[in-house]
Amino acid sequence: MPEQDGCVIGILASGRGSNMAALLEACASGEIPARVAVVLSDREQAGALETARRMGVDAVHLNPRQHGSREGYDRALVAELRQRGVNLVCLAGYMKLVTREFLAPYAGRVLNIHPSLLPSFPGLDAQQQAFDYGVKVAGCTVHLVELAMDSGPVVMQAAVPVMDDDTAQSLSARILEQEHRIYVEAVCAFAEERVRVEGRRIFIRAPRK
Questions:
Q1: How far is it, in rounded angstroms, from Cα 77 to Cα 39?
Q2: What is the model's pTM?
Q3: Looking at the structure, do residues 119 and 91 belong to the same domain, yes or no?
Q4: Domain finish residue from 83, 107, 131
């Protein structure tokens, strides 16, 4: 991986890219002291690609069908990231499981945001899962990515109370607000090298004033 001064971020997204946009805006404003080098997507029509281009960030569609296997696809992703000097990867609504081929070059440097208080309600439709279960508190989690889905050590979480008049949609909207907030905070901590990992426990130093 080419040597870079400071934090260089690559973002993987499959959908509209709401969390991606929050990270791009925070990097552009200086709230996160990092540069986003590229946004990659497995879906050609992903709204995230159009948003990234509109914000002046290189955006690339890589078609999984052209790479033969999950491992082959992940090698292609890593090649795109490496040629841009990426040293921190953020998944933002990325809907594919990653393989060892992807994680090995970026060990401890791949983050994901999930709309539940993990380990509760992993996988798809987490907000609906929480709502249907009848929890009184929902929320979101930033975690390190491991091979098993939504299983990595927790970096940061935010709790969102479930109101009596909530629907799954209204709950999802309030969770999303907190996703944007804590993902920016977590990525900022990594960019500023304020994160220490000890097994499954992650410690974050307060930023310098």
A1: 11
A2: 0.95
A3: no
A4: 107
